[in-house]
Amino acid sequence: MRRAPVRWWGVLFALLVATHALAQVQPRRLALVIGNDKYQFVPELRKAVNDAGAMERELKAAGFAVSKYVNLTDRAQEQALARFAQSVRGGDEIVVFFAGHGVQIRSGSYLLPVDIQVASEREIEKFALGLQDMMDVLAAARPAFSLIIVDACRDNPLSKIASRSIGIERGLIPAEPAKGQMVIYSAGKGQTALDRLSDKDGDANGVFTREFVKRMRQPGIAVRDLVEDVQDSVEKLARTVGHAQRPAVYSETRGTFYFHAPVARP
After folding, report:
1. Which residues contact 195 (CB under 8 A, 6 or more apart)?
2. 156, 170 contact by CB (below 8 A)
3. Looking at the domain that runs over 26-251, which CATH code has it been given?
4. Whether the predicted pLDDT of 167 surpasses 50
5. Given 1, 43, 116, 173, which residue has the most CB atoms within 10 angstroms?
């Protein structure tokens, strides 16, 4: 009896279907990185753009497709978030990193664009990026894991405008992460984040970011353990110059996330 000819195209189709199915279960890694230094109407920062660059390099090394922006205006910041949120699909792993000025007012925490110029808290709500709003938009895309890193807990740059106080003097209040989200602040409530340890500190990055990126390439370190190590390290360094700073973490994540997975042993 003759064997039926092999239908190679049928085998190829089956392989394509299997490959497509595998692609559906393998999470993509996407990151949005923003660094704002050159503020036009409030004090400029020195290292936010450098911090964004360092984070971009480490995220790319960890397999993330990174969208990086620096010195964004209000409109550009809004557009950058919208483009990123639209690119996220269910099951993705995402990271959002913001370095720049942040301010806390009664309605929440806000990340400031470089063209911010306000005379009231209502204008902050209109022209700055609400941290909780951003988190809610990202949660709606249903990523499997979201890490939001905010290196913006510095002195309030809007504390005295038009002879009146705008916003809380220091710090950002705790966020309310959705399921699958972890939020990291570079300093705790009521604290400010150090750009440098002293005038002799020649490191290109702020204290929090330099300690965070040092640990990102180490394989097999779960993000919870990495963050705890960063908290202790930043607190210890800040204490050497008489400053109180301990990064704050708020998490509703399940499972284990690695920037670099554990190395398989033979």
Report:
1. 45, 46, 47, 206, 207
2. yes
3. 3.40.50.1460
4. no
5. 116
Tell me what pLDDT residue 163 has: 40
Mean pLDDT (the chain) is 85
Rounded to an integer, what distance in angstroms lies between the CA atom of residue 152 and that of residue 112?
9
| 100 and 152 Cβ atoms separated by less than 8 Å | yes
Q: What is the pTM assigned to this prediction?
A: 0.86
Mean pLDDT across 173-194: 87
Q: DSSP E strands: which ranges in 36-101?
A: 65-70, 93-99
Report strand pairing: 29-35 vs 108-111: unpaired
58: left (phi over 0), alpha (psi -120 to 50) or beta: alpha
Contacts of 38-44 spanning 24+ positions with Cβ under 8 A:
38/71, 38/114, 39/100, 39/101, 39/112, 39/114, 39/116, 39/157, 40/114, 40/115, 40/117, 41/115, 41/116, 41/117, 42/101, 42/112, 42/116, 42/157, 42/158, 43/157
